[in-house]
Amino acid sequence: MAITLLQATLISINLFMSYVDMWGSSVIGWANPLFPCFVTGVILGDPVKGLIFGGTFTLFYMGVMPIGPAARLDKYMASVISTALAIDIGYTASEALIIALPFAILGQYYMIPERAVNTSLMHMADNAIEKYKFSRLPWIHLSGIFVWGLPPVLTTWGLLSFGTAAFLALYNALPVSLWAALGAAGQLMTSIGIATLVSMVYDVKYLPILLLGFGISAYMGIGLLGAAVIGLGIVALIVALQGGQES
User: Fold this and answer.
1) Dihedral angle at the C-alpha atoms of 113, 114, 117, 119, nearest 10 degrees?
2) CB-based burial, 123-133: b 16+ in 10 Å, e otherwise
3) CA angle, 170 then 18 then 158, to 5°
4) pTM of the model
5) What is the dihedral of CA 175, 178, 180, 181, to 10 degrees?
6) Which of 21, 96, 101, 143 would be 31's cystine partner, CB 3.0–4.6 Å?
7) pLDDT at 42
């Protein structure tokens, strides 16, 4: 399946909405890789893979995100590009992680000049405040969003529109050991992301449910979604029984 120019354009707009949500509203949901990856899957006709990749990337970035960095990995561009390429080529979630890491690093390099440009916008905002020209502030803020979003969006649009074949040629030309190392790193970061998530919500009284869900998923062939539904039912039953005892 080849990505059309229209699909590449829609995917790029979808990516830009992630930066709008990150630096603008932070309420519409695009600031989490899960949502833009799902929308990418919808655009390419495979929303299920989009959700799977989005969930995988969310865990991956929980494992690699530092606290308070000046320039961090770009989870938005990497997630959207790797989801689109993986759906187009037919890769699995593990292979999509291999694609994501180089683009996340590329996006990190983009952030250095982006921050330099945004510094000048901050001075413009300071001058506008000193002169009581507050009407300029929203436009300055919107300009900053475009500074953040345009480089990765143009990269995504160009790659998906014209560079898929070139990417495949590069992918096949590089040594297998390099991609294997990137894949191992991606799987490790995903595991760390899961551990981080568990550490945030862990409580010893919930340990039996955690072990039950792990056992159902690992040994009974039921997917994570099925295990989650079973866990939700157990929790609802416990809450109902506790409520009956209190009354």
Assistant:
1) -110
2) ebbeebeeeee
3) 35
4) 0.68
5) 160
6) 21
7) 92
